[in-house]
Design brief:
The protein folds into 3 domains: about 200 residues, Rossmann fold (3-Layer(aba) Sandwich); about 170 residues, 3-Layer(aba) Sandwich (Rossmann fold); about 55 residues. It has 13 helices and 13 strands. With about 425 residues, the chain is α/β, with parallel strands linked by helices. It starts with 11 loop residues before the first strand and ends with a helix. The radius of gyration is 26 Å and the shape is elongated. Magnesium ion binds next to α7.
Amino acid sequence: MYDLKEEEATPVGVLVAVQTPELDNQTLKESLDELGRLAKTFGIEVVARHSQRLPSGGKKAYLGPGKLEEIAEAIEALRIEHPGRPIVVIADDELSPWQSRKLSDLVKADDIMDRTELILEIFHRHAHTREARAQVELVRLAYQAPRMRERRVGADVGRVRGGGKGAGESALELGRRQIRDRMAELRRELEHISREREVQRSRRSEVRCVALVGYTNAGKSTLMRSLTGSDVYVADKLFATLDATVRSLSPPVTPGILVSDTVGFIRKLPHDLVASFKSTLEAALEARLLLHTVDASDPAFEAHIETTLAVLAEIGAGEIPMRYVFNKIDRIEDPEVLERQRAAWPEAIFTSALDEGDIARLHEIIVAVFQGERQEETLRLKHHQGAIRSMIFEQCEVLEESHDAEGGVYRVRATPVALASIHKRIDAGRP
Ligand SMILES: Nc1nc2c(ncn2[C@@H]2O[C@H](COP(=O)(O)OP(=O)(O)OP(=O)(O)O)[C@@H](O)[C@H]2O)c(=O)[nH]1
Ligand SMILES: [Mg+2]
């Protein structure tokens, strides 16, 4: 597998899909639009799409013979139109190794990819941390191994899939035994990382965290930036974020609140990938509240919500309290559309991540969530207990500080957990 060099010609993409009876025209269109965006994110210029109504997608060569002939002819014409550029056929469903080979033989493209592989390749390129890279490499090897024999070895193989900057070897570079060994090694590495994280997690005493979750490209990282003043990566591509990041809410409150940004979801997200990201997500989802971010300007937003809820349930986060954040409202041109959404989702928070006022309001809502579970109390410190004062200021909102003959008096607002740990310190210090 070699890099897709800058000077190499951009591959030309042809999307193909099966329209099963339960798939209406609108959903098919949305799914293909999204496949097109995945292809674009990967660096393929999509020039055509073909779909066929079939009772099921399990056909031998994915599509029927007549359709395949039509596609083969279209590809021949594309070769004349785009000389020297590799032509890739991309299926909207995961193909079996056998289907992929059949399709390849019949349509005579330079390469065949499917939705799963495209997602895996994008993840592979965007993975930065040791954990994300190991997870993606593992799933990618599992996907590639049974398909190794099926790929025609030669110039066309690997022409489109670039090594990219995500490290790790591909199945095509490894023998079968080596693949098994490498997969075992990756599993051990991931177990090790996950144990390390357990230790770090148990050190964190109290979790005051909200997690931004949602469909890819909804604007989670943009909201994260505005809410925390951090410079996490934002981009108009799918799966810009792969690693969970945690930052402090800004302007800060006492005690601090953490905001975490997570990987985005997409329909037909490969099951193995969801499973492998579960551990990364679990840490991020140890949140008190999920902010389910929705791109309200996307006509398919309701389908995106359903997909996100399904993935959240799959990773065991279905029970965490959740608020909807309908984002990108500045992109909704028709005010009536926005009004209808507000009426249909009365509990949602409507934002434009680009609007300071909206962000300030979201900030207030987040703070209020934690305020609700705090209680007011008066704490007394003796003169010799001055050291505990800093703990009080760290973990409580101090409403008033005064002094009497005995020592310091602090009227505070804090969570029961914080108050209990401060009382423990105070009692331990009593003569
Ligand atoms: N107009 C407008 N654009 C937005 C808004 N929020 C985000 N964007 C843009 O939408 C694109 C995607 O934003 P990201 O914040 O990277 O989205 P994400 O949810 O983190 O996406 P993934 O990391 O891929 O899951 C970027 O081009 C942002 O600039 C908004 O409220 N209004
Ligand atoms: Mg992101």
